[in-house]
Amino acid sequence: MTVLFRRETPLPSPVAAVVGRAGAPRPTDGATIEKIVEQRLLTAEFQPVVSLNNRHVIGFEALARGPVNTRLASPAAMLTAASFKGLLPELDTVARSVAADAVLKLDLPDETLLFVNALPQGLLADVPDDLADSLREAIDRYTVVTEIDDAVLTGDPLLAVHAADRVRALGVRVAVDNFGASIDALALLPLLAPDVIKLDMSLLGHAPNAHAAMVLDTVADYRRTTGALVVAQGIEHDHQLPLAGGLGARLGQGYLFGAAATVPQLSGGNDGRITLPAPAAVKGDNLDPLVLPGEEIIAPGSLVRELAARLERTATSSDIPAAMAIVCPNGRFPSGAPLAAANHVARGSAMTVLLAPDAALRPIRRVHLAALPSGDPLFQHTVIAILTPSTAAALVATASPGTEDTYTYRFSRDRDVAIRLLRHLLARAAFEEYA
After folding, report:
1. C-alpha 97: how far from its chain's center?
2. Cα(281)–Cα(170) distance, rounded to whole angstroms?
């Protein structure tokens, strides 16, 4: 599925809105978000995305526009109004269908890259039958890349990852938009598993600094292991191109290459030299994520709890916030600390997910709590998975039957193992929350 919203950012000069083709809404003073949703009073514009090595236009980003000359003309105004009225999924669905109709009428070449922004609430909503056909045809004909904003990812990682997995199963590719706007997103990158990274325009708007170096480090490692494409956004001047290339970008977007328009034009044809990596898949998907590689070790429970405490401290002491998921079968952290300690853990993390029996859970700020039935097979294990851009850890420990405080455990520092375990725990938590 696809959505067409873009975070509003100040531009160096105003961009005149171009009224869409046939059926474009006329200016009106009576626009309401309810009327926009009900009567489909949206249009779409398309900003070019170019190959930096030859400046050929190889794709577009679709942007939603409300009725012109009204207070709801901008995406930000529509989103604000829809949020207030509880209509975000409905607005999202209408925006997708309007954009799909627009690109199909333009008859762009097959496989053209079409970038569209995504709201997880809309991606997870059911699509009405009368809108589904155009959406499906656009996905089948073009290479649709759904963008999930850095702020959306860090604001609710569990929802964002769940939505990305849902649309990926429908044949839509995934991008993270405005990546690098926040430090929290760095640890979450491999969990979202995007095919494309669209860099935040602030990275090109300032001289290189320590933050840009952290983003570069994270992006370079992810690009090396996945083959993901990198897009530099906000390119307005030629002197920004060397920095864009230095950050690993092969594609670019910005006013240097063109503003959004209702009738996009490919230049030099879709030359085929820019291709997305194979659909994202976590290494070892066919393996049981709870069975870690390596030797199974028997140890006193006190030693396992000390190892767990060390991992919990590691997650809160990293210079870059960590992503973590923890299984607490007895309603306590694996270290033995009470779940109330999650307040401290969450303050220093990009994402904290706790899976515990329902009776043990109380709301904790910034913590995703997944209440599982007390007899859930997952509670046969004590599990920790932690990830930062520079470190990773996975621990699965099981109480030995017939013994007093003795455990068997496997422990790994392998990033792929930790990512696989984290994604498994996120999927379990998402199933409980969004099923």
Report:
1. 22
2. 14
Identify the pLDDT of residue 402. Answer: 85
Which domains are delineated in the chain? 33-253 (3.20.20.450), 297-434 (3.30.870.10)
Give how far the C-alpha of residue 320 lies from the chain's centroid of Cα atoms, to the nearest Å. 18
Handedness of CA 37, 28, 20, 276 (dihedral sign): negative
| Amino acid in the structure at residue 194 | P
For helices 157-168 and 415-434, give the axis angle rounded to 10 degrees.
90
Q: Are 360 and 386 in contact (CB under 8 A)?
A: no
> What's the pTM?
0.87
Looking at the chain, how many residues does it have?
Answer: 435
Average pLDDT of the segment spanning 47-61:
93
What long-range pairs does 12-18 form, CB within 8 A, spacing at least 24?
A: 12/236, 12/255, 15/259, 15/260, 17/45, 17/65, 17/68, 17/73, 18/45, 18/261, 18/262
Contacts of 99 (CB under 8 A, 6+ apart): 2, 4, 44, 62, 64, 116, 138
